[in-house]
Design brief:
- The chain is α+β, with helices and mostly antiparallel strands.
- The protein is built from ten helices and ten strands.
- The protein folds into three domains: 71-144, Histidine-containing Protein, Chain: A, CATH 3.30.1340.30; 161-211; 227-366, START domain (Alpha-D-Glucose-1,6-Bisphosphate, Chain A, domain 4, 2-Layer Sandwich), CATH 3.30.530.
- The chain has helices spanning 2-20, 26-71, 77-88, 115-126, 169-188, 192-210, 214-217, 239-246, 336-345, 350-366, and strands at residues 99-103, 106-114, 133-141, 227-235, 259-266, 269-275, 281-292, 296-301, 308-317, 323-332.
- The strands form two sheets. A seven-stranded antiparallel β-sheet has the order 4-10-9-8-7-6-5. It has a three-stranded mixed β-sheet with strand order 1-2-3, with helices on one face.
- α2 (26-71) crosses α5 (169-188) and α5 (169-188) runs antiparallel to α6 (192-210).
- The longest helix has 46 residues, at 26-71.
- The relative contact order is 0.08.
Length: 378
C-alpha cells in the first residue's frame, strides 16, 4: 500500500515538474504561481486579522452580557423594544407584521404570526434577562393564506453557528486552526486513526477557507451560487451580426483559448471540448433553453455533465451605435470549488481568462468585412 502511494506520489510530482518547467510556457506558469501565492498570503493575513478581531468582539460581548445578567439592571423601554425586535428577526418570517411595546420589562406582542413560530419566538424573548414577562396578544394562524401580513417572507430556523452556510470570521479562524492541526497530526501519525483525523482535518480546513458547505466544495452539489461570472461590454458591430455569432457556439474556439471544439449535435444541443489543467480535456454537452432573436440566449449543461454550467446573454442596441452584451454565467467545475481552485492555480481561471477571450472576440467582430461566415448548425 505504502509503495503504491509512493509511486503515485512520484508520478504526480514528476507531472507537476514537467508542467511547471516546460521550456515554452514554464516561465509564465511559474510567474503566475508566484503571483497567486502572494495574493493567497495577503488574503490569509487579512482573514487572520479579521478573525482575531471578531473573536475579541465576541469576548467583549460575552463579558458585557454576563455582567448585565448578574446585575439585572432595568433598561429603557425603547431599548428593550429594539432588542426584542432584533431577536424576533431570527425566528419569525414576518417580523414587521408584529407590533412590540414595553413597559418596565413587560413586553406586549400583537399582530399575525404562524403557529409554528410561536414557541421559538417566546423562547428567544424569555431568554433575554431584561424581559420580566410577556403580554400575548398575538393572532395565531395555522396557514398564511388570506392573511396579508403573512405573505412572502423567509422562513427562519434557529441553527447553531457551525451548521450555518456562512461562518463568521472568528469561527472560520478557530475551525481553520483546528483543521490544520488535525491534518498535521494525520501526516505525523501514519496509522488508521491518524489518517482518519487527517482527512477530517483537511475537510474542516477547506470548509473554513472556502466558507461554503463541504458538499459544494467537493462538487457533490453546486449550491445556490456556484462560481458566478458577470460581464458587460460594448461591441462596435451591428446587433444582428453579434447575435448571429453568439447563436452559433461553434464560433467560440475562434476567440476562447481553452475551448478546443464546439460541435452542434442537433436540437439546440452542443458538444464541448475544453483544455483543462495541464492540457487534460474536459467534455460536456449543453442545450439552449431560451432564444429571443436579437435579445436573449440562455443555456445550461445537460444532466450528468462533468462541468455544470448555465447562463444568459442579453443583447441590446447602444444609443450611439453598436451593441451592448451582458453575460451572466455560473458553473461548477469537476470537484466543485476545489476543482476551481486547482484550475486557477494552474493558470486557467475562467474569471481571468474571460477578459482576454472577449477582447479577442471584440477584435474579431469589429473587423468589418473580415469575419468569415458563421458555420451552419447540424
Amino acid at each position: 500500500m505504502n509503495r503504491s502511494v509512493s509511486v503515485l506520489g512520484s508520478l504526480g510530482l514528476g507531472a507537476a515538474l514537467m508542467y511547471m518547467l516546460d521550456p515554452d510556457r514554464g516561465g509564465r506558469r511559474q510567474a503566475l504561481l508566484r503571483d497567486k501565492a502572494v495574493r493567497v498570503a495577503n488574503s490569509t493575513a487579512t482573514a487572520f486579522e479579521t478573525g482575531v478581531r471578531d473573536l475579541g468582539n465576541r469576548a467583549s460581548g460575552l463579558v458585557a452580557e454576563t455582567r448585565s445578567r448578574l446585575k439585572a439592571e432595568p433598561v429603557p423601554d425603547e431599548v428593550l423594544v429594539e432588542r426584542a425586535r432584533s431577536a424576533i428577526g431570527r425566528v419569525v418570517a414576518h417580523p414587521h407584521a408584529l407590533k412590540i411595546t414595553a413597559h418596565q420589562g413587560r413586553l406586549s406582542l400583537s399582530g399575525p404570526i404562524l403557529a409554528e413560530e410561536v414557541d421559538d419566538l417566546f423562547g428567544f424573548l424569555l431568554a433575554m434577562p431584561e424581559v420580566v414577562s410577556i403580554d400575548n396578544q398575538l393572532e395565531v394562524h395555522e396557514r398564511a393564506e388570506s392573511v396579508p401580513g403573512l405573505q412572502g417572507g423567509v422562513h427562519r430556523e434557529p441553527r447553531a453557528e457551525l451548521w450555518q452556510e456562512n461562518w463568521t470570521p472568528g469561527v472560520r479562524l478557530v475551525a481553520g486552526l483546528l483543521g490544520g492541526g488535525m491534518a498535521g497530526f494525520g501526516v505525523i501519525r501514519r496509522n488508521l486513526v491518524g489518517s482518519a483525523l487527517g482527512l477530517v482535518g483537511v475537510g474542516v480546513l477547506a470548509r473554513a477557507i472556502a466558507n461554503r458547505p463541504v458538499a459544494q466544495i467537493v462538487g457533490v452539489r453546486s449550491g445556490r451560487r456556484g462560481i458566478v461570472i458577470q460581464k458587460t461590454f460594448h461591441l462596435d458591430a451591428p446587433l444582428d451580426r453579434v447575435f448571429d455569432f453568439w447563436g452559433h457556439p461553434e464560433n467560440f474556439p475562434r476567440f476562447m483559448r481553452h475551448v478546443k471544439e464546439v460541435r452542434a449535435i442537433g436540437d439546440g444541443h452542443h458538444h464541448w471540448v475544453l483544455a483543462g489543467p495541464a492540457g487534460a480535456p474536459l467534455q460536456w454537452e449543453t442545450e439552449m433553453t431560451h432564444v429571443e432573436p436579437n435579445r436573449l440566449i440562455a443555456w445550461r449543461s445537460l444532466p450528468g455533465s462533468r462541468v455544470g454550467t448555465s447562463g444568459r446573454v442579453h443583447f441590446a442596441d447602444e444609443p450611439g451605435g453598436g451593441t451592448r452584451v451582458h453575460i451572466q454565467m455560473r458553473y461548477t467545475p469537476p470537484a466543485g470549488l476545489l476543482g476551481h481552485a486547482l484550475v486557477a492555480l494552474l493558470g486557467s481561471d475562467p474569471k481571468h481568462a474571460m477578459d482576454a477571450d472577449f477582447s479577442e472576440m471584440k477584435s474579431l467582430l469589429e473587423r468589418t468585412g473580415q469575419l468569415e461566415p458563421t458555420p451552419p448548425s447540424t
